[in-house]
TrEMBL record:
CDD domains given in the database record: TM_ABC_iron-siderophores_like (cd06550)
Keyword Kinase found: no
Keyword hit for Transmembrane helix: yes
Protein name stated in the entry: Iron chelate uptake ABC transporter family permease subunit
Organism name: Leifsonia virtsii
Keywords: Cell membrane, Membrane, Transmembrane, Transmembrane helix, Transport
Length: 355
């Protein structure tokens, strides 16, 4: 067959199946900018909407000319601003943590519960309340962080036993076992302490309300460190996605990669859970949203998750403020209504990636 009849066909096939890299990067960058715009818009709405709706001009005036004699300024700056900023950093932390978890375990259903983070933090909080008399969120913040870190370390230590080390299957099994054990201890402590039961009800539901700048300042350093580490793990997670043997063949130190992923997860999930309580589904569904847009490259998945997660968290928080006036639903409850159908859809997918 003449070359002239083959070359155009090959060129057309190449243009369909392999778009230029520059065009793909431009599309992903524009999509990222659009996500940032959405996050900014939701953040502005978070400052405006609530039991008392405040106009955008008044919000801007309150931010630029704060006065304690101004009722709008007190609502915007003292209440909604720390709530919004905390939602941004906590959402970013949970979105990145969920992405790293799914990449580390190669499990599309992985969330902060897979490494026992939520149950470890909850156990530490209930112990601090029941036996140490700590009741304020700022008081048990570091107990929650320490509990999350210890639980994650325990899961990794258990899964590392044996010849193959901490494989995805062993991580999932060890996480489920440790979570069940910690959950039993939490129940046992709560049954013997009415004070801890009452205090835990308001923390365990997951909420951005009632948290001030003090808690934000406390968790910001560890969240920032965890975010930087997680964003730097994109290439390593791409290697793990190919399988341990292929990653080792490419020169990647799989054991070190898993340790770095574990540190990032502890920093992000521990800080976020300690600040606002355990929030389910956010770290589960956001990586899937990002993956549908960008494909399988974890560098882009991490970047998108860092923006989409806080936007979704703030949007659910806004919905919770207006659906049950004059009260409000906590963001953990609203997010459960949003995340549960997505979780069911993921489970029912025929091509769901297995461990």
């Amino acid at each position: 067959m003449p070359a002239s009849t083959v070359t155009p066909h090959a060129g057309r096939a190449g243009s369909v199946t392999a778009p230029p890299l520059a065009r793909r990067r431009r599309r992903l960058f524009l999509g990222f900018l659009a996500a940032v715009v959405v996050l900014v818009a939701v953040s502005v709405l978070s400052l405006m909407v609530g039991a008392r709706t405040i106009a955008p001009a008044e919000v801007l005036h309150s931010l630029l000319h704060y006065s304690r004699s101004d009722a709008d300024a007190l609502v915007v700056v003292d209440s909604r601003l720390p709530r919004t900023l905390l939602g941004i950093v906590v959402g970013l932390g949970l979105g990145l943590a969920g992405t790293v978890m799914q990449g580390l375990s190669r499990n599309p259903l992985a969330d902060p519960g897979i490494l026992g983070v939520n149950f470890g933090a909850s156990l530490a909080v209930v112990v601090a309340i029941a036996f140490l008399g700590v009741t304020a969120p700022s008081g048990y913040l570091w107990f929650a962080f320490a509990g999350a870190a210890l639980a994650s370390a325990l899961v990794y230590a258990v899964s590392s036993l044996g010849r193959e080390g901490a494989t995805p299957v062993k991580l999932a099994i060890a996480g489920a076992a440790v979570s069940a054990a910690l959950g039993s201890l939490i129940t046992a402590v709560q049954l013997t302490s009415q004070v801890s039961l009452d205090a835990m009800r308001f923390w365990q539901v997951g909420s951005l309300a009632g948290r001030g700048f003090g808690i934000l300042v406390q968790v910001l350093p560890t969240l920032a460190l965890g975010a930087v580490l997680a964003l730097a793990l994109g290439r390593l997670l791409n290697g793990l996605a190919l399988g341990d043997d292929v990653a080792r063949g490419l020169g990647q130190r799989v054991g070190l990669t898993r340790v770095l992923c574990g540190v990032a997860i502890v920093l992000l999930c521990g800080s976020a859970t300690a600040a606002v309580g355990p929030i389910a589904f956010l770290g589960l569904i956001v990586p899937h949203i990002a993956r549908r847009v960008v494909g399988a490259d974890y560098r882009w998945i991490l970047a998108y998750s860092a923006i989409v997660a806080p936007a979704l968290l703030l949007a659910c928080d806004i919905v919770g403020r207006v659906v049950a006036p004059p009260g409000e639903l906590q963001v953990g409850v609203v997010l459960a209504f949003v995340g549960a159908p997505v979780f069911i859809a993921l489970v029912r997918r025929r091509r769901l990636v297995s461990l």
